[in-house]
Structures are given as C-alpha cells and as structure tokens.
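Fill-in record for Radical SAM domain-containing protein.
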Amino acid sequence: MFPPDKNKNISRREFLRSVSRASMILGGAGLSLSYPPWSEAFLGNAWGGLLSSPSDEMIRNAPLARYWISANSPGGQCLSCHQPDDKIEGRQYDHKKGIVKCLLCARECLINEGERGACQARINVRGELRSLVYGRPVTMHVDPIEKKPLYHFLPGSSAFSLATSGCPLHCKFCQNWEISQARPEDFSTRYTPPEAIVQATAQRHVPVIAFTYNEPTVFTEYLTDIARISRNQDIRSVLISCGFMNKEPLDEMCSVLDAIKIDLKGFDKDFYRRVCNAELEPVLRSIRQVAKNGVHLEIVNLVVPTLNDSEKMLTELAEWVMGELGPDVPIHFTRFHPDYQMRNLPPTPVATLERAYDIAKARGIRYPFVGNVPGHPGNNTYCPGCGKPVILRTGFFITAEHLKNGRCGYCNEVIAGVWT
C-alpha cells in the first residue's frame, strides 16, 4: 500500500528523494519498485549511471519499438534520412551497419548499432530499434489532478502517476532532471506489465492514470498499451508532455488519451534552442494537432525571469493561443523555482505572473491561471459570463465548487472542460 500522505503538499523532488530510503510497495497488485541509492554527491554530478551500459538482460528483454525506419529496409528511400543537399541522387549504397532513424520525436535521431537516441530510452540492437523503458517505471505516486496541472479535467480527482527515465529535451531548468536526464540502467526496476498498472489504479479506486514527470513520449508504446486497457475499465488516461513528438505517434496517443497538458516553454525560437536544446515549431504543431483531435487540452508556460518573461513574448503567446485554439483552452502561467542548471536565477516575481494573466485576459482568453503560488486568486476558475469564482483552489486542492452540469452555478454560463 502507499504510505499515508502526512504532507499533501510534498513536492515531486521530495518524493523522489524519499523513495531513495524505501521502496514503494504496490500492495494489492503485487508490484514493487526499487530505486538507486541517491545521495547529494551523486545528484550533484553529471549522470554517469550506476551501470556503464544496459545489462544483457535489459537489452534481451527490450521489446521492438514503433516509429522508426532502417537504412536497409526493403523499399527504403534514402531521402528519408539524407537531406536533398547531400547529393545522393543516382548513387547506390548498401549500409554495412544497420543504421536506424527514430521517427518518434521531432529530433528524428539517426542511430548506429549499439547506440541510443537523445532520449536515452531507445536503442539500436542489430538494426532494430528497441525500447529500454517499456514496462520499467521508475516512480509511481497518487497525485491530485490539479498537480499536473489540469484544472478543467475532473477537478478534485486523483491520478495514479507514473514515469520512466528519459526525455528528448534537455531543459536547463528541469524540475525532474533526476529521472528525465537519466538512463534506464541508472535504476533497478522490476518489469511491470500494463495490466498491473491498471489493476493497481483500479484497486485504489483512482479514476485517472497520468503519464508524467519525465517526457512520456519516450515510453509511448507502454503508455498507449496502458491507456487502451484502462479504457475498458472506465479509467481515464492523461498525458503531461513537452509536445515535442511527431504527428503519427501523437495521433495514436490522441486516440487513446482523454486529456493532454503541453508545456509551451516560451514563445521564442531562440529560447527553445538555448535553454531547452529543442525547437519551438514542433511544439506548436503538436498543440494544434491535439486541439484538432478534440482531446481536452491545457497549456503551461513556465515563466522564467529574464529569459521568457518579456511583455512581447507573453503577448505573442497569448495571441497565438487565441488565434489558433480559441478562448477556452486553459493557460497556466507558472512560477519558476531555481533548479538543475539554473540555480542562479530567482523565483519568478508574482507580479510577472499577474502581468501574464492580465495579458491573456485582455486578449480574450477565458481561463488563464497563476501557477505555483498557493492561495493566489489566480488559481481559481472564474465564470466568463458573470465573473464569479466557480472553482476555488488552495494549492492543489479544491476548497469550493459552484458548477452544475458544467455550467456556472450563478448565471448558468457554460464552463469549458470535462467535469464528469
């Protein structure tokens, strides 16, 4: 069983460190997880890994991944990997090594035999791309859905949350870098099939499974298998993502998920390149795609002082959301706290978050929020009709709700969201 939650406001970082002292036993489902012996000295160094490479057993049991092509695939097109300016037209070449191109995320890594993509979660084994993280969650926890944050999706409910290691991004401010920037072999994990995750969720009478903490796209095969099984048991599934995936895998995820929260880390190409080692456009494409698929969508913008907090950037972000998605997508302007490789910056001034909130409101967005500031009135949901608070929050918890069948309890205005 999960241990009693003595402090419901415990941070994910505190949780990750606490599990270093004791394995979390998932009693009724017969699951257990073990964790590496964290220490401040270990956390302070770059990830060298507890093991120098995946074990033979880990590689042997790694299932075939989806979304990749091989240089030697029958009927393969050279321009699937090469650029037009490589001047390969009319040339023939038989690759002696089984190079593969991963098509899961927007990086589209070219991977030699025995090597991995940037996410560290997928490996080329004799010309086949395999997943090192399928069935290998490194953390599980029951969280309030508001912690994701999802404010307009089953408010007040709990979510059985899980993560593996790995991420295609390398954000300098990452709050969960201990797992997102790790390799699978940095953890001693027991194989946990999708059915066991759904069983553990059902036994706790939790209505939602959340794929979160690291970037769940790296375990897309695992999460989609879990989500398909959970639907048959009336358990909903949500994705907490950076949005840096390709179109085809995102279409598959949208077909089995009930809600997606995407981090739009800043509305600036240079910010993405310098701070996240990524590109902005694939994230914008993913946000449009989720909205088009009709999956419940919320957006988070972590506002980092001096880096993505200019009035111009916040205004362009709000105008893009309003123009592309309309007024009803909730946007969370969340407070930055110093972490990982950005300990030199101060926490975001609350006034900056309030300015972002006001900019979004002025552009017509109906549901902006101030995040990571417990007790702030910007945590509440206000009716766009009469302006009264219809959901009041303190921290990650609902303190009052004035909704009736998805409508304002005061004026009967429709409040966009998923309520039952």
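KEY FINDING: The longest helix spans residues 311-325.
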